[in-house]
Write the structure tokens for this entry.
Amino acid sequence: MHRCFRHAQHRRGRLPVGSGVRPFPPSREIGGSGGYSAAAASGCVDEGAPELSRARGRHQGAVPRGVGVKAAAAARIMPALAWAAAALALWQSGAWLLQQRGVALASSKLPYPYLVAEALFRNAGSLLAEAAVTLLNACAGFLLGAAAGVALALLMSLSATMERIAAPYAVASQMVPILGLAPIVYAIFRDENTARVLIAGYISFFPVALHTLRGLQSVRQEDRDLLHVLACGRSASYRVLRLPAALPGMFTGLKAAAPLAVTGAILVELMGAQRGIGVLMLRHLYYGPTHAALFWCTVLLAAALGIAAYGITAALENTLLPWSRTSGRRQGRGLR
């Protein structure tokens, strides 16, 4: 005679089939004042309940919360440190190899990392000031492009006709080379900040529009029919169902667009702006071997700006959509 329940997701169901099975145990079997379960105390836990077994194991061998947080932080940081160490070793080896092979002006092509680090610390003030100019304009363009991308996605999601009309033009707009468009925009507005913002917005709106549209169209037909039965209008459907469903896709597009906005701002600076990290990059490249270390400083700083833009967007996603991150981890475990 069975007196315990199996796991709710057991393939044979939660309730054991047998003679004299009671659908609900008496109150003394559920637990007393001390939170005790007679079925658990008697060892009557079905072997087909892996989730319950794992939960009980975690409870018995619990790890202090602080230790778990430190371990998780180390698990995130260690791969990045390993990649950085590998890149540094490869850089050092490449610079040494150029020197050993007697390449002319080898230090101007690939200086040793310690020379770049020395130049970076010596000129940190001016480098960070110019990087701030680039980052501010890239952020403004990124916000403009994100707003345009979301608006375009909403427009195309209204009907299939709207999507057929707008989608070809959106795709065709990305076929225009940025190197050809940036001088035109700069010549029209005669303002480097405006040109940087517009080019950064132009280069970043398409990923946002594409991924947001996919999110808006990912709603199941059953959910749409349910809202239709409940007499919800189009605005209520977007507010309650479609926009929340599109948020993960929208953030995917934002993460892809954030580094592109930095790239767009730097491209405008290379066309003849007065300030920005791209201006320093072009200047130190022009001066040649004596400024090789500073040139590499600007290259690394530009890469750091793109990584920072992606990281800030990802952190914002984790803050606003923690359930999306958990769902992604579960899907990853399922695939493995």
Observations:
- Residues 67-93 form one domain.
